[in-house]
Amino acid sequence: MKTSSASESTPNNMVLSFLRIQSTAVAAAVPVSRNLRCIPHERDALLDFRAGLIDPENYLSSWQGKDCCQWNGIRCSNRTGHVVELSLSFTNVGFPDGQMSSSLLGLKNLRTLELSSGKFTGTPILEFIGGLKNLRYLSLSSAMFGGRVPPQLGNLSKLLHLDLNGLSWDSYIYSADLAWLSRLTTLQYLDLSLVNLSKVIDWAHVVNKLPSLVTLSLSGCGLRNVIPSPGHINLTSLEYLELSGNEFSSSSVGTKNLFWDLPSLLHLGMSVCDLQGSIPQNVGNMTSVTRLDLSDNNQTSTLPTTFKKLNNLEESSPYMNSINGPIAVLLERFPAENRLQDLILFENKLTGNLPSQLGHLRNLTTLMLSDNLPTGELHTGISALRKLTELWLDSNNLEGPRFPEWLRSQNDMHVLGISNTSIVGPIPPWFWVTFSGTQHLVLSRNQISGLLSPTMFRKMEADTMDFSDNCLIPSLSFLSLRSNLFSGHIPQQISKMKQLQYLDLACNNISGIIPESLAELIAMAVPPQEDGPLSHMVDCGLSIDVIDVVSYTDSSLVVMKGQQLEFTSGIVYMVNINFSCNSLTGPIPEEIGRLPALKNLILSWNHLSGIIPDSIGEVPSLESLDLSHNNFFGEIPASISVLTSLIFLNLSYNNLTGRIPSGNQLQTLSDRASIYIGNPGLSGPPLSKNCLEPGLTPATPEAHKHGGDTVFDFLAIGCGYVMGLWIVFCLFLFKKNYRVVCFLISDGLYDWVYVKVALSRAFKTWKKV
User: Which one of 683, 711, 741 terminates a domain?
Assistant: First the structure.
């Protein structure tokens, strides 16, 4: 999409090049003397000019020695040696005190003066510039000049190029009277964009007195049509006219007579000009125009019938208006034989079906019809647009009973936006091949269904892909979202990922229950194969609106057996569910037994409750089971003892009761006592606590009749405590190794407590969020 702006470079590069050559007046016919040096008084004038400048980039370091013709930014005549050009554009030079030296008046033969994009913060455009009578080329744009445009510039009667574009955050340039401009009758290029001309009432009459103008840019000047424009138009050479960002209206005399009757015009920019009503019929008089920008106005009617005369039109941009009526009528206004490349009509009120006339615009490369009111199907007439590279049909009332087949012929599409167009059904296989080179692909807010395979994404080279708000099911085998800030429940849609083999949602703020539908993850029900889904490792990140798929070929970190392990090729055989460090509640679903290939189940640090289901014994491949730090109660199911593959088990810090089941596999686990710690109701090996025998009753008050003896017990304990501290103190005093070990243990204990507290606070914060 192309849009105009106040600082947009004009298409008249050849004209500008000609002006620059003409302004320097290079005379190659006369031999050049090797001993020729610049004129001494001109050198002195330049040095005096430099003395008042700041030069942060040291651009003027070459300004020394006798031959000023060799200095940066200086050009001399090959014939006379006089300085004919001074160019300091884009050099950041400026005046620290806001004063420009008038010594430049000594350069009587100067023809080009360029100070664009300098740092002349607030410095007025000084009147003495009007004394440089031989200037052909003057550019002071974007140089932070401020104040009034001096009318003395009207003395530059030989000027061909004048650029005072005020585009700058640090300056304010204005003119209340443009009478001086009418004296520059040889002017071919004029740019006063963003110069405040809101008080000028006769601007149309002034510019009409410049018959040589080829380029005129008056964007954002606050212009208004307050008096009738001239009856006779002298701007017969004008090719480029940019008037965007002013306050015209279609009913004014000026817009009817001045802007639309220019037969040589190639470019007309009138966006954001408060144009109302309809485009006048005499727009057809601009038979040479190639670009017409009428965007962001208040026009309501369709294009006039005289639009058919614009055979050379390449871009039409009446977007962001209120143009109404059938889209078929609008398309009929374009000539049968046309050069139109860009048709930009978004945010209007066009209605009706997409007609077959679309196919007549065979040179179209960009078509934007978003945010209108067309109905019916996505018409096959678009398939005739073989040069189309950018298509936007978003947010319309179009119907798509199936994926539009005509898109199959659009092999050169770079941008495709067909969101919110009621497309239903799956994405066909040819789509991924046809649009493999697309840069921006937007298919959101439709009813597209089916699987979204990572192999499809690997074929794409798009910078942006948006498939949000559809019915697509990501076909993933590896999904890791650990250590984020995700909240809410575990979505039921996960169960539809039939290839999902590795699922890690640990360390988030996910709440709710573990859905029973996880039993439908059929890839966890069969043993993984060497050439299975994870043989092409893909690590995916999901958000509400975006699916971001990244090819992953490096190693992967997996939490298993109570520690973090690094997997490379072995990840192919990993079948994993990790929901640890969340806020899940409720029981473990019985359906967990329907995932017999599961190797790693980690549900620790949640708020899960209920009994541990017997079906856990129906997962024979289970190697690592961590249910610690939850609220499970009841007895440990005996079925756990039949898990012959079990290598790691952690049931600590729950409310489990009863006798610990025995079994050969459970006897092989390391550090067995720590598996059950924090469950005061458990008994039996490997714990030292025995079960309560039948008939035992709680202690009676009589059992405490000797309670007075406890005084002596406490005294004995206190003495032993003091003696123990004394022994430890002596050991630390004389045994350095003991001190080191003790401090290491205490540091480790401190770190452990700190991490636990930090995690607890983080979880509370996430819950509040």
Answer: 683
Contacts of 256 (CB under 8 A, 6+ apart): 250, 280, 282
| CA 312 to centroid of chain Cα atoms | 36
Q: Which residue has the higher pLDDT, 677 or 532?
A: 677
Residue 619 included in any domain: yes
Peptide bond into 686 cis (omega under 30): yes
| Number of separate domains in the chain | 2
What is the signed CA dihedral for 141, 144, 150, 155, rounded to 10 degrees? -30
Of 282-291, 539-548, 689-698, the least confident: 539-548
CA pair distance 738, 40, nearest whole angstrom: 89
Residue 84 is predicted with a pLDDT of 96
> For residue range 318-347, what is the model confidence (pLDDT) as tens digits?
989 989 999 889 999 999 888 999 999 999
What amino acid is encoded at 458 in this protein?
A: R
Cβ distance 508 to 484 under 8 Å? yes
Domain containing 496 — which CATH number? Answer: 3.80.10.10
Q: Note the pLDDT of residue 269.
A: 93
Q: What angle do CA 637, 638, 644 make, to 5 degrees?
A: 115
Considering the domain boundaries, does residue 75 fall inside one?
Answer: yes
**Angstrom distance (rounded) from CA 188 to CA 545:** 53
How far is CA 37 from each of CA 28, 43, 728, 754, rounded to the nearest angstrom? 17, 10, 95, 79
Contact call for residues 41 and 130 (beta carbons, < 8 A): no
Mean of the per-residue pLDDT values of the chain: 78
- For residues 574 and 571, give the distance between their C-alpha atoms in angstroms, rounded to a whole number: 5
- Burial tier of 326 (Cβ tally within 10 Å: 0-12, 13-18, 19+): middle
357 DSSP 8-state letter: G
Q: How far, in Å, CA of 92 to CA of 121, rounded?
A: 11
What does the pLDDT average to over 168-178?
76
The sign of the CA dihedral 387, 391, 393, 399 is positive
Rounded mean pLDDT of 269-295?
89
Assessment of whether the complete model's pTM goes beyond 0.70: no
- In this prediction, residue 243 has a pLDDT band, given cuts at 50, 70 and 90, of very high
- Contact predicate 505/482, CB 8 Å: yes
Enumerate the H helices of 442-548 as residue ranges. Answer: 454-458
Q: Mean pLDDT throughout 199-228?
A: 88
Last residue of a domain, one of 201, 228, 247: 247
Predicted local distance difference test score (pLDDT) of residue 138: 95
Per the CB < 8 A criterion, the answer to whether 142 and 170 are in contact is: no
Which domain does 119 fall in, by range? Answer: 1-247
- Residue 508: inside a domain, yes or no? yes
**Lowest-confidence segment of 170-184, 203-217, 680-694 by average pLDDT:** 680-694
> Buried b / exposed e across 424-459, counting CB within 10 Å, b at 16+?
eeebbeebbebbeebbbbbbbbbebeebbbbebbee
Q: How far apart are CA 591 and CA 618, in angstroms?
A: 10
pLDDT per residue as tens digits for the range 603-613:
999 999 999 99
In a domain, 263, yes or no: no
Q: Which amino acid is at 215?
A: T
Residue with token string 């031989």 = 134
Task: Give the DSSP H/E element, type plus range, for residue 317.
Answer: strand 315-317
Sign of CA dihedral 378, 382, 387, 391: negative
